[in-house]
Amino acid sequence: MDRRTPPGLLRTVDRALLVLLAFERNRSDWGVTEIAEEFGWDTSVAQRLLATLAGRGFLVSDPATRRYRIGPAAMRLGRLWDRSGTLELLARPVLDELCRRTGDHVLLCVPDNFHMRCVAAAEGRAGPLRYYPLVGELYPAHAGATSKSYFAFLPDERRHLLFRGRPMARFTERTVTDPDLLEEEFHQVRARGYAWTVGEYDTGVATVAVPFFLGREPYGSLSLGGPEERFPDGPEDRLDALRQAARLLESRLTTPPRGTGRAPRK
Fold this sequence. Notes:
Largest sheet: 6 strands, antiparallel
Organism: Streptomyces demainii
Shape: elongated
Pfam family, one: IclR_C
Domain IclR-ED: 73-255
CATH class of the largest domain: Alpha Beta
Domain HTH iclR-type: 10-72
Protein name: DNA-binding IclR family transcriptional regulator
């Protein structure tokens, strides 16, 4: 993450946003001194920034430890993001270009409890996969590359909580419902960096998918799919294009498009 304030923008606001972006799964709380050392600021600057963010509810201070955690105002913005359509807006050029390069159906999906929900799609040359829109469809966590490419990259203990002791439906004769076999597949997907399935969720449909990340966290999956006859040699000839698209998507979700961040001239 670039920590330099772009020319023309307010440094104090930028610093406050850098503080918020410093919180991740493996770093859920910060102290004043730690923030000051992390960014090379005076302790007094770090204190004022943290106190201001806490004052607006974006952080919460633990009175016992004097350490700060993400607050409820951040949750409110997160919920607004889910319904805003901004993800589809940012992803659309990436999906359309990937569809143009491969000719396959392209799906962008995010987790929704024990499913992956399609939030954007581009239709390939083979014609519709469904008689209803792809956007909004829920894909089960245990069946198909679209889901497996995401769930494979969750921490093992979190994935175990989701999959152990849960009944899983069989959609085709190739659907895997045994938790131990699924766990083996998840480790294989994580080792090679992508998921590849044929006929696990829909008979005759092949899918290759990769995860995309926000920071170190898996956020969703990007997949290519179509009739299995379109993949006579497997997924290898599409992997470069798919991985490049995922990296470009990550960039668009973490770096604002050039020219949109400057304050307007008066």
